[in-house]
Fold each of these.
Amino acid sequence: MVDQASEVFSTDHRSAPLGIVTMDGAKELGRKIEEHLIRWAKGAGREVETFSIGNSCPRFSSGDAKGLIESTIRGYDLFFIVDVGNYSVTYNYFGKENHMSPDDHYQDLKRLIQAASGKAYRINVIMPLMYGGRQHRRNYRESLDCAFALQELQGMGVSNVVTFDAHDPRVQNAVPLMGFDNLMPSYQVLKKLFRSFPDISTERGEFMIVSPDEGALSRNMYYASVLGVDMGMFYKRRDYSKIVNGRNPIVAHEYLGSDVAGKDIFISDDIISSGDSMLDLAYNLKKKKARRIFAYATYGIFTNGLEAFDKAHADGIIDGVFGSNLTYRTEELKNRSWFYEVDVSKYIAYFVAALNHDMSISKLVDPHAKIDALLERRHSEATKD
């Protein structure tokens, strides 16, 4: 894959010079993406030290802000990288330290797009965690922030939005004439799982996929299909007579599917917010005599802290939680023995390189083919042993 990426950079089919505008909150991810791009470019014989475009969003003492782009971007193919979920970024407001909300990050994105002043060749936005994405449908009189934000970005001249594991990818229907790519790091997740637990067997009698709810069926069906194993699911029984925090509370998780006894279980979801539902499923599966339980969420934000997962791991309920580096993770989370980070920066770098050269991304990234190759390697290694 490195040779393929270098080959892309060696062509003369770049749409325009590449510029990476990494916003506050996404510096770590942006640095890793750029490192891959620079390595591939140098491997193709190009003299390049950076693709980064300096930027900032300073604030006045009143709290108002402005976006600044610190070098020329005329004719550039710009990729803005933003993490709307990074609440660790702060700013001073009337002498108090304010933590940035998703609204603040989104406003800064618009400020920097405005600062480009229409001089860029093309504007692309890499927003792994979609702004407003959890409010994906309207019940009663409610806002549809994500759909409106996409329309707003399109109106500002954005050509492509790249996201990961959108809560509901049908939001792209709001902007049918704008590029919208919803990527799934399925290969990266399985690669990390197998490296972290090399003794896992994906034989049908020993491994099983379980969907945490009906909304996550498609992503879990994909894992079950490529691995050739059975799948079960939970459905959430809710109390529709009450509304708590804007939602009908979950009364119980009911399991549907074949027997999980004696099997390793893999559960995939888009987000672990409080984590209560994931832990409820894990305890439920342990009562059904599941062997080991591994959970994955693209965005592990753990709004209720880590103590409940610490206890579940210590009690042998859950063996590992996998999460991507697509949004902010606290140092406490990174240092937990039960947490395994999935690095998705290389995947994004492939995508950026392909878009910049107006190439089909399938030529560089084919999750199904790569997963098949991964499974074949594991089978060969097991046969040698």
Amino acid sequence: MTLAGATSLDRLPPLREVIARYGLAARKSLGQNFLLDLNLTRRIARAAGPLPGHVIIEVGPGPGGLTRALLLEGADEVIAIERDERCLPALEEIASAAGGRLVIVHGDALAVDLTAYLAGRPAKIVANLPYNVATPLLVGWLQADPWPPWYSSMTLMFQREVAERIVARPATKAYGRLAVLAQWRTEPRILFDISPRAFTPPPKVTSSVVQFTPRARPDPCDVHLLEQVVAAAFGQRRKMLRSSLQALSLDPLPLLAAVGIEPTRRAEQLSVAQFCALARTLTDDRA
């Protein structure tokens, strides 16, 4: 693919050389595992769909392996949020070669208002998420208000176990809070796995790339009430709903009867639609 600035990006030194020059040993405390194989990073970038015409939000770019791939695959602009100041010089090298298409934000993605950098432009989120903040970041993006959200898709890397929880179906062990929230507002699917050997240092688990396509009209209910119902139900997932939903500080039997759910059922047996129906029955003062 021939793009403005691609030649300069191709001339950048190999990532292993950059890591050695700046002493960028991955830090476990930051959930870092660097993906250095440009073939794999470009596969992730291509999986995110057509990039031209979009601003790409990348969280935890590290030395910039995926960042390079996103730019080479045609992103109009990449906004890279990096907490680790050690990685900033490596990212600045990419920015110098990218002709103004890379914006580096030094900060914690959990605290950064990403929409402030978009000015209403179409956006996608594409990231090899730091393991230690992957779930809270995802939940925050799923709670976006208003909906449909400010992003048209998310293409994110997780530990395989987390990815399986995201796409899990009812009546399975992996089905829980994350599956309900993700499947309520998006259509998530696992695209492919990445071996631990592809990372520096190699993690102990396989990783998976998951793509989320926002639903235009998710089942209507208040996100915070849904969170309360799901947290109560799965907080004691081995118990029947007539017991676990007592955590809502109300008598669960009328609530369950109102939506036609047997009180002897357990949380993992309910569909996403049934959880939404339960959330809709809660009064406004429960929000």
Amino acid sequence: MTERERHVPVLLQDAIRYLNVRPGGTYVDATLGLAGHSTAIARQLGPRGKLIAFDRDPDAMAIARKRLDDLREVLGPAMPEVVLHDVEFSQAEKLLEAESLDGLLADFGVSSLQFDEAHRGFSFQADGPLDMRMNPRVGMSAEQVVNQVDEKELADLIYEFGEERRSRRIARAIVRARPITTTAQLAKVISAAAPIMKSDRSRHALHPATRTFQALRIYVNAELSEIEALLDAAPRLLKPGGRLVVISFHSLEDRRAKDSLREGARQGIYEVLTRKPVTAEAEETDRNPRSRSAKLRAAEKKKAGRFS
């Protein structure tokens, strides 16, 4: 995949529309990635605006920083102030002032850079080391989890984070096949233990390893607790009238976003702007197949408040 193709963000126009970017405002892109959404926000902010972005992936941060520097060359004095934080977005509340944001955007999907680079170990489409860490500088790798976690805990995390019904069978096979060091080796073990059923064999059937790889990635990166921390902090960080826009890619993410917005509405903190999640049109899914599973939800803060 070329750099240009990597720079196509999911649901870009919808995200910018629901974020309601106003010149001179202060906006956060909690998931900078390759700066696709951030560059679109920056173009609308003007010189009095401020863009704050978070990403814990050093490779993505380096590319995004260059893209924003290139945009500065294009916009010149019309470029807003840009502040980049190379930490987890769960740290936002420690780094930002209360009720300081006009908008907060979070795209919870794994970036194309992570999926497409075999050495990052996120995908079974190309063989590489089992890593899966969004920040490869810290934490346990997927290889350590696969080879060190006991069978019951491994089965439980595959079931919980991958919603994989055959988790016990897969965990048993993984433990018997240890040591496992590459994505291809792990995918082969899973495929042998839990092959696609005849009734499921179709053009759109998931690869047998899909859910297990998802589970390992979520576990390694503590993705759900990160999301919960950001959603919990959002109403305290947003100004009255500020917008929260979140894009999720699987049910575990979307459920948390939906429940958070619904609870905020129940407490009178949010007005939910998306009765149903916004999804990609056919033109976008044809151009970017990864957008097929994307769901966007948005809310506007009605008043100062705090979740009970």
